[in-house]
């Protein structure tokens, strides 16, 4: 209100002055005043909503509309009608969260379809969820690309219209081959699945629950999912579901291996005192690992289900109510938890064991070392893409298809969103990255490699030595970056 009152007073003062001016001058002055005030108001509003080093998160404790007879088989149309009633509530909460400046919202486990199904009776509620690393898909914009994705389409459109990241839990189905030794007799896997949409509505992450809690309708995934997704406001987030939080895999392993500092956590948690109430353990987890946890629980007090919150190591915003029949939206601004350092990982690339550090966020500076070689990367990109990059270093003897000593600093696109895919053969990319890559090489015979999407070449802007580091830099790339590397081969003779 202060801004509006100030604007009104200023505009009236200008009006008195402008009264004596000619019409053209008056119009120009009023236009300038209006532009200035709009910019001022925008800056004030932006500063209040999105402060540097902070983000606005939302979680919704949802009281789901349930199927009264979950053990009875129904058809897809009836299943969609029930899920649609819950999705209407989700849409209302997304709008409410958006009005409060939320940049990410988390919904609970089982919130859309409910619970207590058998393997057969849950089938009409299941959606097909493609792997986001295999296909880039925006369900809201491309609704007919896959069948049985009506729920995904609704969720995608919520994210798109509100311009926020959205995390929800659904049931998913995945066909499997009968020669798959783990394939169930009915020829399909059924997974308890979390999905994440970015602010454009694109599906960017999928997590399949590892530790099922008497959930006979679902299968345990053949392999543990370690799922991360990147955001422009808080960097990388990790994700797991409900009962997972009590186990090393995936919860502890994910946090330690990838140095995760923000976690989204859909749950359908039944409180068990004195040690395992929802808010009690969620806070303990955030404190133990010095992370932020965005936890959304089901609200069903008769089953002992309540307790959601936005947790930080020092302060939390919670909801726990065993009396009310209503859910609750929690919105809070919290500080971005930043890792003290990025963890160093190992991965095989070109038959050599590279030490890697993952590249997250829209900009940053990284360093990784092996033996005597240290590689340095400074990078910036205009947007976050659903692609993973890594900075790798190798300083040692290459022994496959020839023997020679090499030193390599490499910025590479990974084959998927897991660090184990870094070093795989990749030919296509969309990320436009400005970078400076350098290393303290021990010889002056260094080969700069720059490969773009579609096996196309580009040229560096600068090459040369500075402070005992050999650098290459590139700004404004012509297409997506596949590989940027500095390669030093020190053997006598030729390459083989």
UniProtKB/TrEMBL annotation:
Its EC number is 3.5.1.12. Residues 68-336 form the CN hydrolase domain. CDD domains: biotinidase_like. SUPFAM superfamilies: Carbon-nitrogen hydrolase (SSF56317). GO terms for biological process: biotin metabolic process. The active site is at 109 (proton acceptor), 209 (proton donor), 242 (nucleophile). InterPro entries: Biotinidase-like_euk, Biotinidase/VNN, C-N_Hydrolase, C-N_Hydrolase_sf, Vanin_C. GO terms for molecular function: biotinidase activity. Keywords: Glycoprotein, Hydrolase, Signal. It catalyses: biocytin + H2O = biotin + L-lysine. PROSITE patterns: CN_HYDROLASE. Belongs to the carbon-nitrogen hydrolase superfamily. BTD/VNN family. Catalytic release of biotin from biocytin, the product of biotin-dependent carboxylases degradation. This is Biotinidase. It comes from Chelonoidis abingdonii (Abingdon island giant tortoise). The lineage of its organism: Eukaryota, Metazoa, Chordata, Craniata, Vertebrata.
């Amino acid at each position: 209100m202060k801004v509006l009152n100030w604007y009104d007073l200023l505009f009236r003062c200008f009006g008195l002055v402008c009264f004596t001016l000619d019409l053209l001058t008056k119009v120009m002055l009023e236009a300038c005043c209006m532009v200035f005030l709009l910019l001022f108001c925008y800056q004030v509003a932006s500063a209040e909503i999105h402060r540097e080093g902070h983000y606005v998160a939302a979680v919704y404790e949802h009281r789901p509309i349930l199927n009264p007879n979950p053990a009875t088989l129904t058809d897809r149309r009836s299943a969609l009608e029930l899920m649609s009633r819950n999705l209407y509530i989700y849409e209302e909460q997304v709008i409410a969260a958006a009005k409060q400046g939320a940049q990410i919202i988390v919904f609970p486990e089982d919130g859309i379809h409910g619970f207590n199904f058998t393997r057969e009776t849950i089938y009409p509620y299941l959606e097909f969820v493609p792997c986001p690393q295999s296909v880039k898909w925006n369900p809201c914009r491309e609704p007919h690309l896959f069948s049985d994705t009506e729920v995904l389409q609704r969720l995608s459109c919520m994210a798109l219209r509100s311009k926020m990241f959205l995390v929800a839990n659904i049931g998913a189905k995945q066909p499997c081959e009968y020669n798959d030794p783990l394939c169930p007799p009915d020829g399909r896997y059924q997974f308890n699945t979390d999905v994440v949409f970015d602010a454009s509505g694109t599906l960017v992450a999928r997590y399949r629950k590892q530790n099922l809690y008497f959930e006979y309708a679902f299968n345990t995934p053949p392999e543990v999912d370690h799922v991360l997704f990147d955001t422009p406001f808080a960097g990388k987030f990790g994700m797991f579901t409900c009962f997972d939080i009590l186990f090393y895999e995936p919860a502890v392993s994910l946090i330690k291996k990838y140095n995760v500092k923000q976690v989204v956590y859909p749950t359908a948690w039944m409180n068990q005192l004195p040690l395992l109430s929802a808010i009690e353990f969620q806070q303990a987890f955030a404190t133990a690992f010095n992370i932020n946890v965005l936890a959304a629980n089901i609200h069903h007090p008769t089953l002992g289900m309540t307790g959601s919150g936005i947790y930080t190591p020092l302060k939390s915003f919670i909801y726990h109510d065993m009396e009310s029949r209503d859910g609750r939206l929690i919105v809070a601004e919290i500080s971005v938890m930043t890792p003290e350092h990025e963890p160093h990982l190992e991965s095989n690339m070109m038959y050599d064991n590279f030490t890697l550090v993952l590249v997250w966020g829209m900009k940053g500076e990284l360093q990784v070392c092996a033996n005597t070689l240290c590689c340095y990367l400074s990078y910036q990109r205009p947007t976050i893409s659903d692609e993973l990059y890594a900075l790798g270093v190798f300083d040692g003897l290459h022994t496959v298809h020839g023997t020679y000593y090499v030193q390599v600093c490499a910025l590479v696109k990974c084959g998927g969103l897991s660090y184990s895919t870094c070093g795989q053969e990749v030919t296509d990319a969309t990320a436009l990255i400005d970078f400076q890559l350098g290393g303290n090489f021990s010889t002056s015979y260094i080969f700069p490699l720059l490969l773009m999407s579609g096996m196309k070449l580009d040229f560096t802007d600068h090459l040369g030595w500075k402070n005992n580091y050999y650098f290459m830099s590139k700004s404004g790339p012509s297409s997506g970056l596949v590989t940027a590397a500095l390669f030093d081969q020190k053997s006598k003779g030729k390459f083989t």
